[in-house]
Amino acid sequence: MAGAGRTTDRKTLASPSDTAAARLPGDGPVGRALLRPADETAAVPPSLVDRSPHAAGRATPARRPSLNALRALEATVRLASMTAAAEELLVTHGAISRHIKSLEDMFGVALLVRGARSVQPTPEGARLAMDLSSAFALINASVEQLQPGPLTLSCSSTIMMSWLIPRIGGFHARYPDTELQFNMNYDRIDFVRDKISVAIRNNMIEPPKDVVIKDLIDEWIGPVCSPDYLAAKGVATPADLARCALLSTKTRPNGWRDWIAAAGLDFSVKPQNSYDHFYLLIQAAACGLGFAMAPKMLVIDDLRSGKLVAPFGFIPGPHKLVLWVAPHLRLRADTRALVDWLIAEFRAPDMRGEAIEPAARPGR
Pick from 297, 329, 322: which is nearest to 146 by CA? Predict the structure, then answer.
């Protein structure tokens, strides 16, 4: 009886709609309407037209570019190089090229002008890349607030070697649970993209938009050399520098001119040798190759150890040292702790014009 019942049920539930569902798509008025050319669809019977309130809102979704393609374009325009963009995004040059080509095909406009050694954005490409940079920065900043990573302090290699490393142990001792990473760079940065929390910078460098800036100290500058070089040349007055080898750095080509102007002296000098970085310049002076024009903070420990001497002391130069603080991280407790510690260290005794006596050597 149960089996008969099931057979009877199938027969009973059968309906014209079940029979219609088995037909081919071209059968019936709806199927035929779907298969007609577009100019014949007006013949669809009025009773089959969907006039519900939601019908007007249904439209074919617009094609959207892939996120990877957009990132490829933004990186290429920002770095002015497909090769550099590929390195940053950890993909091949060919992948970057294909991504950008797909965007150009989708939008129907050229986004890049491709040269033999570089690429430049078209006006449309530049506008899109600028908006994408802002959008990606907002995404990263939002994620950083919810899932903060370690602090990253950015400074030049010379500040790292000559000033920060000898002192950073004090920060770790005071804040043992704070993870701190370093970024050695002394140029402009993007806090979100480069994942930087705080940066030590000279105020001659243009800061990022919306950055929080905190003054540290004036940059005190002066000529330094090794004790043996000073004795050999018999330097007693600034005018005696005219018969000495003067050293400079390519990152501060006007250093000597700045010092002469700040000291109110009335003569000019021309450096004989220039080095790529301050740490090379300072090492050259310590090895007896001549006088280097250097900020005091970069040579303070060498003055204390006796490796260098500053016969004319130090005076405030035209620049200041500042901290750049990432605006989206400024309220984090560990960010505030790092900023406060740096400010205190930069304003410690001997960081300005105070004379520094070399430490007594053992046995003396």
Answer: 329
